[in-house]
């Protein structure tokens, strides 16, 4: 089954999706079994795998474990073209539309294309928009780009609309991993009402209420990284 079609169907049905982000670089291997059990018990519908800097062997090892121990679809969320594993189900083919660094707009995509052609990965073009979040996040640092001003709704809107016109299948509103402030609700609402494609929201969401707030604002997919990484009981302690 086509993962993107499922996301579109869910949006139509107003069914909300939840992705747990695993950064291969931060995995504590002794805890991985337990972590995957907790993911299977959680309301997560997808697993995202990626990070700013990831060793290839670690990525493959993590993917092998995930394929063995969970039936959830695994989607690569790569920081660069080295983070491609044929063991995943799909890849977010990202363009960092908030930035003006050509590497993240076209260079890395050109490098990745021939590699992806040799796999069966479902490629999901994603307009990736980094929003200023009160602290410098790894995405901004590693990509050497400026996030968009969180007050400048017009610019975020124009960026999302351009992303859709360019043919992207998803818009990802990103505050950055470990962000102090999550993407503002008002912004999520505006963007979700102004583009047809599904909206992913992530970065700095630390409790179940934050997830609900993003859903209510119009997010179709919410991504939880750090909060689950810090507390594998995240989804049962607060239920
Ligand atoms: C980062 O949006 C994701 O790319 C998740 O962020 O680690 O803050 O949950 P957190």
TrEMBL record:
Pfam families with a match to the protein in the record: PcrB
* Species this protein is from: Flavobacterium hercynium
Q: Which UniProt keywords apply?
A: Lipid biosynthesis, Lipid metabolism, Magnesium, Metal-binding, Phospholipid biosynthesis, Phospholipid metabolism, Transferase
| Reactions it catalyzes | sn-glycerol 1-phosphate + (2E,6E,10E)-geranylgeranyl diphosphate = sn-3-O-(geranylgeranyl)glycerol 1-phosphate + diphosphate
Family classification: Belongs to the GGGP/HepGP synthase family. Group II subfamily.
One of this protein's GO BP terms?
Answer: glycerophospholipid biosynthetic process
Judged by the first EC level, this protein's enzyme class is transferase
Q: Which GO terms describe its cellular component?
A: cytoplasm
- Binding residue positions for sn-glycerol 1-phosphate: 172-178, 203-204, 225-226
Q: What is this protein called?
A: Geranylgeranylglyceryl phosphate synthase
Task: Give the protein's cofactors.
Answer: Mg(2+)
Q: What is its EC number?
A: 2.5.1.41
This chain's function reads: Prenyltransferase that catalyzes the transfer of the geranylgeranyl moiety of geranylgeranyl diphosphate (GGPP) to the C3 hydroxyl of sn-glycerol-1-phosphate (G1P).
- What NCBIfam families does the entry give? GGGP (TIGR01769), GGGP-family (TIGR01768), PRK04169.1-2 (NF003198)
The answer to keyword Metal-binding applying to this record is: yes
């Amino acid at each position: 089954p086509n993962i993107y079609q499922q996301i579109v169907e869910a949006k139509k049905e107003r069914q909300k999706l939840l992705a747990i982000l695993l950064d291969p670089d931060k995995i504590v291997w002794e805890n991985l079994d337990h972590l995957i059990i907790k993911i299977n018990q959680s309301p997560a519908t997808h697993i995202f795998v990626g990070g700013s800097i990831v060793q290839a062997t670690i990525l493959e090892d993590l993917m092998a474990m995930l394929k063995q121990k969970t039936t959830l679809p695994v989607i690569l969320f790569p920081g660069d073209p080295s983070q491609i594993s044929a063991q995943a189900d799909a890849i977010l083919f990202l363009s960092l539309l908030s930035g003006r660094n050509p590497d993240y707009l076209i260079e890395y995509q050109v490098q990745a294309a021939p590699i992806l052609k040799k796999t069966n990965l479902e490629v999901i073009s994603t307009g990736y928009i980094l929003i200023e979040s009160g602290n410098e996040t790894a995405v901004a640092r590693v990509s050497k780009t400026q996030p968009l001003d969180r007050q400048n709704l017009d610019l975020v809107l124009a960026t999302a609309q351009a992303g859709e016109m360019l043919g992207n299948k998803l818009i990802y509103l990103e505050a950055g991993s470990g962000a102090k402030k999550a993407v503002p609700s008002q912004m999520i609402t505006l963007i979700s009402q102004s583009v047809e494609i599904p909206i992913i929201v992530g970065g700095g969401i630390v409790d179940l209420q934050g997830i609900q707030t993003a859903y209510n604002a119009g997010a179709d997919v919410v991504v939880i990284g750090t909060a689950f990484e810090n507390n594998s009981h995240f989804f049962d302690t607060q239920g």
